[in-house]
Amino acid sequence: MRKLLLLSTSVLQNGKYLDYASDVIKAFFAENGVSKIVFIPYAAHDHDAYEKKVKDAFLEFGLELNSIHKSDNLMATVKEAQGFFVGGGNTFLLLKTLYDLNLLEAIKSRVLQDGIPYMGSSAGTNLATVNICTTNDMPIVHPPTLDAFGFLPFNINPHYLDHDPTSKHMGESRETRLSEYHDIPNAKSPPVLGLREGSWLQVKDDQILLKGSISNQTARLFVRGQQTKEHEVNSDLSFLLKM
After folding, report:
1. Which residues lie below 8 Å from residue 152, measured CB to CB, with a gap of 6+?
2. Does residue 15 come out as left (phi exceeding 0), alpha (psi in the -120 to 50 range) or beta?
3. Which family does it belong to (predicted)?
């Protein structure tokens, strides 16, 4: 009963917050009959400021949004939610806070068992996958485990960047880092989808579609023991559910 909208990023260069995907966001919640969204702000430290930024954007979309951090009863808020939006920030902080508040399993149950729509961006997209091992963030806090919601049986690397051959930077490229994830002997490392800026996944039940605001945009797929492969916008990636 998956109903997911997973964005690589919240802001494109010179753009407003979530503006590049505004039509998609409005359609996603409208087709699922959602007018009120519960916002999960825990990837940032200043929850009030984060809520205001997101709330202002959603008001322009004609949607009501309220942050769970202002709730007097967290479990009741999750139980009554029409839909969720988990924003970007630090993925480790987000995951640890959800574990600390005992919210991870509660939200997971509502999404997978009750079919409640879930929208994620950046860190929120990381959390929709198996674990947060392929986030770009630094471990500023230590969650009890790196296991995430597991709505999808693979990982995502948001903000995926290609190596720039003209750069003087001598550190590892994103491709190198993700390949290292699959190089650990005897590890059951799931596939990783490198989701470039302006791209997103639309997931409905057992169908996964790659979408994007740039017509020639692609996503890069890393599978253990295989060559990386590019997938174009509008590709059906449902096969990833069976890998």
Report:
1. 2, 4, 128, 129, 130, 203, 208, 240, 241
2. beta
3. Belongs to the peptidase S51 family.
Closest CA to 61 of 32, 21, 33: 21
Of 159, 173, 213, 235, which residue is the catalytic one? 159
DSSP 3-state assignment of 147?
Answer: strand
Cα separations (Å) of 133 from 65, 94, 118?
29, 14, 21
CATH number of this structure's domain 3-242: 3.40.50.880
Q: 137 an active-site residue?
A: yes
DSSP annotation of 236 reads: B
Point out the catalytic residue in the list 121, 137, 189, 199: 137
How much is the pTM? 0.95
Q: Is 182 tagged catalytic? A: no
Cβ–Cβ under 8 Å, residues 58 and 52 = no
Candidates 10, 67, 122, 199; catalytic one: 122
Q: 148-174, pLDDT tens digit by residue?
A: 999 999 999 999 988 777 777 767 888
40: β partners: 86
Tens digit of each residue's pLDDT (9 = 90 or more) over 23-45: 999 999 999 999 999 999 999 99
Task: Give residue-wise pLDDT tens across range 48-77.
Answer: 999 999 999 999 999 999 999 999 999 999
Supply 117's token pair.
């729509």
Q: Measured between alpha carbons, how far is 89 from 210 in angstroms, rounded to an integer?
A: 23
Supply the angle between the helices 104-112 and 91-100 in degrees, to the nearest 10.
90
Give residue limits of the domains in the chain. 3-242
Q: 19 an active-site residue?
A: no
